[in-house]
Structures are given as C-alpha cells and as structure tokens.
Amino acid sequence: MISRNYLSTALIPGLPFLGFVILGLFGRKYIKRFSGGTAAILVFLSTAMALLTAWDYFSGVGPTDTNSHPIDVGDITWLPLGSNLSVHMNFLLDSLSLMMIVVVTVISLMVHLFSIGYMKGEARNPAYYAFLGLFTFSMLGLVMSSDLLQMYIFWELVGCSSYLLIGFYYDRPTAVAAAKKAFIVTRFADLGLLIGILILCYQARTGEYHKPTLDIRELVYVLTHTTPSGLFLGFPLISWGLLLVFMGGAGKSALFPLHIWLPDAMEGPTPVSALIHAATMVVAGVFLVARLYPLYAEATDVSRIIEYAGAISALLAAIIACTQTDIKRVLAYSTMSQIGYMMFALGTAPDTNWQGYTAALFHLFTHAFFKALLFLCAGVIIHFVHSNEMKDMGGMRKMLPLAHVCFLVACLAIAGIPPFAGFFSKEEILLAAWNSSKLIYAIALFTSGLTAFYMFRLYFSIFWNKPATGHRHKLPFVMSRPLIILALGTVFVGFIPFSRLMVYAQYPDADPHESIGLNAIPPVLIALLGIAIAARLYYKENDRPAKWAQSIRGVYTLAYRKFYIDELYLFVTKKIIFNLMGRPAAWIDRHIVDGFMNGLAIATARISATIKGIQSGKVQDYAWFFFIGIAGLAVLFIYIVT
Amino acid sequence: MIPLNYILFLSTALFFIGMYGLFTRRNMITMLMSVELILNSVNINFIAFNKYLYPEKLEGLFFSLFIIAIAAAEAAVAIAIIINLYRNIRSIDVEAADDMKF
Amino acid sequence: MIGSELVFYILSAFILVTGGLAVTTRKIFRSAIWLLFCLTGIAGLYFWLGMLFIAAVQIVVYVGGIVVLIIFSIFLTQQSGKDLPPPVRSRAILSVLAVCIGFVLTCIILNQYSHFHSQAPYSGKREFDMSISAIGSQMLSTTEHGYALPFEVISILLLAALIACIVLAIRSKPEEK
Questions:
Q1: How many CB atoms lie within 10 A of CB A360?
Q2: What is the pTM of this model?
Q3: Structural domain containing residue C108
C-alpha cells in the first residue's frame, strides 16, 4: 500500500475547479478550440488521482480488516460561531465518498471526451467546459464534505452549475424556462434541507453531549447514542429534521412530488444530461440519505415515508415512460424510476441490517454506468437524426452499429438481465424490499417489468421498427471510446464485491450480505415478459401499439400527460401563490416601501421650496437676517451665557 | 456737565436711525446715506471716548480719521457700482436687483 | 443749566431730527440735503467737544466730498424731483420694532456701566496737546503709538478705490454698443 499525504486529494476537486477558472477567464479569447482538450486533461488527472486513492483505500479492506478507516483531510475552521459551534471545511474520505468520487470523476471524464466530439463547432464551448468543470468540482466537493454546512454550500453550487448547464442554449425560451424550473424546484427543496440541517445540529445539543455540531460523523455518533428529546406536533423533533433533510434530497433527486423539473431539464445538451441527470446530480439525494443512514435506521416513521415516496416515484415514472415519444424524456423518467428504487432501498433501513444501504449504493454505481451510456448513445442518435422524437427514427442498426450494441447492453442492464450489472444491484434492492414490506416488493417487481417494457420499446423503436436503412456512420474517436468504456463497465461492474467494500470497513458488525439464490428468478421472468411484449409491439412496424392505446384510452392519456402534475403545480403557483402572496407583496413594495421613499423625497422638495425664499436676492432681506442674528447672539451671550 | 452717557445715547440713537433707513429704504443711494449715518455714529463714539476717558492720547481721533477716509473711499466705490448697475437694469430700486436668488 | 449743556442739547436734537428726516423723507434730493445738515451737526458736535481737527476733516471730507458725490449720483441716475416709492408697510413696521428693541437693549447695557454717569469732560487736570503739529507728528511717526503704517495703507486704499471707480464706471467702447 502506498502511503501518501492525503492532502493531495484536495486536487481531486481542485483540478476541475482550476479548469473552470482558466476556461472562464481565458477560454473565450485564448484557448477557444482547445477548451475541450484542456478540460478533459484536467478531469483525466483528477480521475486518475481518484482511482489511485480509491485503490489505495479499498485494497486494504477485508471482512475483519479495519485498516481502511475514514480519513480526514485538512482541518480548516471556516466559521467559528461562538464558543460551542464552528463550521469546518474538511474533506472526509471514507468508503461512501470514495465510491462517489470514482463515479463522478469517471462519468465526468467520459462526458468530457464525448463532448469534444458532440459539441464540436459550438461557439460557446469554453463556457460549456467551464460549467462542466464547475459542476464536477461542486459535485466532488459535495461528496467529500465532512461538515453538513459545507455540504450545503456545495449542494447549492451543484444547483447553480446545473442551472447554467441546462440553460446553456439560452436563446431558446424552453431551455431558459427549464433551467429556471429546475433551479426553483431544487431551491425550494433546499429550504427544507437547510432547516433540517439546523434542526439536527440543534438536536445534538441535548443529551449528555451538550454541544451542537455540524460535523457529519460527530452528528451521527451523537444522535445515535443519545436520546434526543423534543416533540413538534406529536412527532420527535429529530424525525422532523430527518424528514426535512430528505425533502432537500428529494428535490435534487427528482422524487415525487418534486420531480417536475427533471423531464424539462432535457433541454440541455445531451452530454450534460448524461452527466447531471443520469449519474451525478440526481443521486445527490441518495447520497445525502446514505450519509445519515444510521439516523434514518432509527427513525422508523421517516423511513416509511422515504420508502413510499421512492416506490411511488418509481411506479409513476415507469407508467409515464411507457407513453412518451421523446427519447430523452423516456430516459429522464427512467432515471426518476431508478432513483425511486434507490430511495426505497434506503428507506428499508429500520428493517434490514445495512442491506438497503449497500443495495442502494450498488444500484447507484451501476446505474451511473448504464444510464450515462444510454444518454450518450441517445446523443449519438439525436446527432445523426437531428430530432428527438422516436417516430423519426427506426431501423438504425446499420447506420450506427456501435451505438446499437451499447444501447442494447445498457437496456439489458437496466432490465436486470444477468450477467449485466443491473441484475446484481436490482436483485439486492428487491431482496431488501422483500425483507421490509411485501407491498413494496410487489410494486418494485411490477415496476421492473414496466422498466424492461419501456426500455425495450425505446430500443426497438429506434433500431428495429423500420427496415434497416443507411450506410454505416463512423463515429469519431472521442465519441466512440467513452461508449466502449461505459459498456465494458456496464458488463463487468456487477461483479465487484460491493457490500464487502462499502460496509465492512466502517461498521464491522453489520451484516448485509444475503445470498440471492432463488429470489432472483421472479424479477428476471418479469423482465423477460416485458421484453417480449415490447418486441411484439415494436419489432416490426404495425398498428398494435395504437390499438392497445385506444383500448386503455383513459389511462393512456393520463400517463401521456404525465398525470397532470405540472398543470397542478402551475395552477397552485398562478392562482394561489401569485394572487395571495405575490400580488399583496408587490402592492406593499410599490406603494408602501416605494411610497415612503418617494414621500421622503417629495417632502424634502417641498420643505426646500418653502425655505428657499430666504435666498431672495434682496440686500435688505440679508441685512435683516444679519441684524436678527446679531441681536439674538447678543441677547444670548449677555444674558443667558454669563 | 454732560455725562458720557448722554453722548453715547446720542450715538446709539443715530446708529439705529441709520439702521432703520437701511432696512426700509428702497433706493440704493438712500441706503448708502443710511450707511453713512451709521459710520458717523461710530465716529461720535470714538471721539467721545477719547475726550472723556483718555484725554492725553489721540487714538480715538486717529481712528475716526481713518474711518472718515475709508468711508469716503467706500462711498465712491459704492456710487460707481450703483451707476454700473443702473446702466444694466435701468433702475436703482433695490428690489429690482434680485437676480442672485434661488 | 449752563451754556455748554444747552448747546449740546440743541446740537443733538438737530442731529437726530435731521437724521430721522434723512431716512424718512420721500423726496430723494431733500434726503441728501437733510443728510448734509446732519453731518454738519455732527461736525458741530466735534467742535463742541473741542476736537477741532476732526471737525474740520468732517466738514471737508464728508460734507464737501461725500454728500456732493451723492448728489451727483442722484443726478446721474434719475430725476431728482421724482418721488421715492413708499416703503413696504410690513417691513416698515417690523423695522421700527426691531430698531426700538435694539435701542432699548443697548441702553440697558449702557446703563450698567454706571461710573460713566459722573464723568465729565476734561477739566484741566491732565495735559493734552491737540494742536495740528502734534497730530501730524504722531501720524507720521514710526515709534510706538505712531500711525505711519495705517497712513500709508490708507493712501494705497484710496488709490485702489480711485482705480476701482474708474474701472467700474467706465463706459464700454463705442463700437461695442
């Protein structure tokens, strides 16, 4: 094992940030066409360092080997708030953060490489790569934070950079609206996150510890070892804190009902969707809940809510995805569905002994690979067809053979067919669900069938539906290599002994591993059923889909219109918030605040107009004032002062 | 014997008569005349003090002398200004010269 | 009542009356003449006090110079026979009020210095020399109590006033009209 000064791990987020600064300041004038290369080189160095650090850390791990304990890097007290509490800026390297670092850097590197080919010739490339660098930096900072407030700072930075990236084509009004929507919805959720953080920090004060703290490990330790008191509306205060923190995570992770921004966020460039909305930002919520996992394991009521929220999201998204015709929308809803899986796996915390934890994180890891792969393939397809709609595609397997194979691999993975990565992670999730609640298991099973159906509907519609046409397009090197690497990842990543690496290092008395065995069969069968139905409907061009849609017209319309949730939000915002809160606030601002200021000005002007008569220009008036002044002063000094 | 008081009373009265003229008169030349009255009252004051309190010295006399000289110069310059102003606004009414106002 | 006191009372009455007329009369030429009388009365007062030199200077400079100058300016600027406009009524009343108040105030202050009451003009105890030669030599002496410097400054002032009057009153060149 190479022992190294871990301070150099500060370079892992530092290099993308450097890329952001350099490209932001000098990109447009000096670097121009090499901005992609510059950014890619910096991210490559960062990835190499991340992989080395992860290898270093994990290679000392065994079931009883406690060699790899969490490492604290740096110790900067950023904000001492009084004698009791201070906010630190440290990096925490433990198994969770290292896993996330690997995911973020690898996917970011793939996206950078792909973008060099995809965004070729785009005029604002330096800005694009600068924003990508900023995003990578923020995400890495988020997962490496050791302090809740520090994580919040990076959380907001992630939101900001995702706004910049979604609204990259700012001359399109839909893109601008989508960026605003994403930012506002996640910002609204972040309010819950902040309040939750404050509640948790405050809760650490009770009990024997007597000290509020924001450090994550300290907080988790304190809150699991003391019994915090305090009730609010009948529920323990700590449950409220955890619930609000989950709300923040739910916003970023696009869980029902805060999911409305994710489909619209597909207005951004496709590599951005691959990075942000497949692999990294949307799993920030999962990461957050996983960080505080021991706390959620003790709060049964909140975990129930998380479970059901995740399950509903998964099911809802799957149903909607079955009817959408835009490739990226389908993939967006599929992301939402998979995140729902991860969330309800985490929600099984009270019932399973760390099983949900490893299952969710394993699925996060594999999902990053195959979802990024799906998005990048979609990017390739969109690039060649110049349209997002499925009806414009069909029979493309001869035109884009590499994309075809990679897409197929990814679809098989997401459907959960062995031996691809998705099979293993999905099995672990379903196992955790089985141990927790049979209802959840049923929902999860049904959703996995739907997943297989809509993914293969997509696959068949793109590559099979029509006769194979066109000649073979050769993809540029920078675009094909990421696809290959991600496809290899999708195939082989499932074999990593995840639970051993993730859990045993830190919590030696946890026991998440249960053999999968026969429990694996129902999901695989359902998946195969879904694939078969999709093939029957979409393999060759026919009218069976239309007839099916007609027969369940009501449900179909409901699903196609995304269950009218967007309209509901719009209604609430326009009729209730604007009218009840916006208009009075604007009225007060215009008439009372502005009126006060204007009134001050008008009063000053009036007083001035009245007084200005003193300067009349007439000599005798001035003589008058002289005399009055002198007489007054004389009286004052002679009679009053002496 | 006339006490000093009486002479001071006289000069005070003359001073305030001059001041009344300064406030009330609308003609610039008559205002100048009132200013001359004021200066003269001060002169009376100096001479009286010199005579009654310090009869062996001549300071009061010299002061009055110089005041007279300065008053003469000042009156001359004031007349020049008034004539100049008269050429511009064709009037020596002091109310007419109110351009330097708000 | 001895003669000098009577003379004083007559002189002061003359001064005050003519002064009051000078500031209140409506005709401007008459105002200038009343001023002339007032200044002559003051010169008379100086004579009564025994300060002959100052009285002479007063007559020569003030009466013979300044009043004549004022009369010239009256002729230059308007018809001397025309009536002056009456004063603004509110301002007249306020001025009377202010002047009376000021006068009363000053008299009160004066009365506090009661040892003036018994002062009398010089009755021969101390030596003083009011001859012209003494005045002249003190004015031009440079030792202590000498007034050579103010004398020079006054002459420069008079020169400056002379130049200023010429510059101010000069008419602009004919071709600019």
A1: 31
A2: 0.70
A3: 86-113
Question: Would residue C144 count as lying in a domain?
Answer: no
Digit-coded pLDDT (tens) for B51-60: 888 878 888 8
- Please determine, for residue A1, whether its predicted confidence score (pLDDT) is greater than 60: no
**Structural domain count, chain B:** 1
CA A287 to chain CA centroid, nearest Å: 10
Instruction: Establish if B92 touches chain A: CB-CB under 8 angstroms.
Output: no
Using an 8 Å Cβ cutoff, are C157 and B68 in contact?
no
Count of beta carbons in the 10 Å neighbourhood of residue A401: 15
Residue ranges with strand state E in A70-141: 71-81, 85-93
**Cβ-based burial of A461 (10 A; exposed 0-12, middle 13-18, buried ≥19):** buried
**A242 Cα distance to chain centroid:** 18
Contact indicator for B53, B42 with CB cutoff of 8 Å: no
For residue B96, tell me if it sits in a domain: no
The whole-number pLDDT of residue C109 equals: 83
**Does residue B101 form part of some domain?**
no
Is the ipTM reported for this complex over the cut 0.85?
yes
- For A638, the closest of C98, C102, C109 (CB atoms) is C109
Q: How far is CA A269 from CA A37, A115, A265, A474, A543, in A?
A: 18, 9, 10, 21, 33
Q: Is residue B19 part of a domain?
A: yes
Amino acid at A309: A
For chain C, the domain total comes to 1
Contact B100 A617 (CB under 8 A): yes
On whether the CB atoms of residues A448 and A426 are closer than 8 A, the answer is yes
Closest CA–CA distance from residue A602 to any residue of chain B (Å): 18
| Separation between Cα atoms, residue C142 and residue C147, nearest integer Å | 7
Asked whether residue C43 is domain-assigned, the answer is no
Q: Provide the CATH number for the domain around residue B84.
A: 1.10.287.3510
B contacts of C22 (beta carbons < 8 Å): 21, 33-34, 37
What tens digit of pLDDT does each residue of A374-404 get? 999 988 888 888 777 777 777 777 778 888 8
Name the residue range of residue B44's domain.
4-89
In a domain, B56, yes or no: yes
pLDDT per residue as tens digits for the range C30-76: 999 999 999 999 999 999 988 889 999 999 999 999 999 999 988 88
A338 in Cβ contact with A414 (< 8 Å): yes
On whether residue C34 sits in a domain, the answer given is no
Domain presence at residue C99: yes
Which amino acid would we find at residue A410?
Answer: A
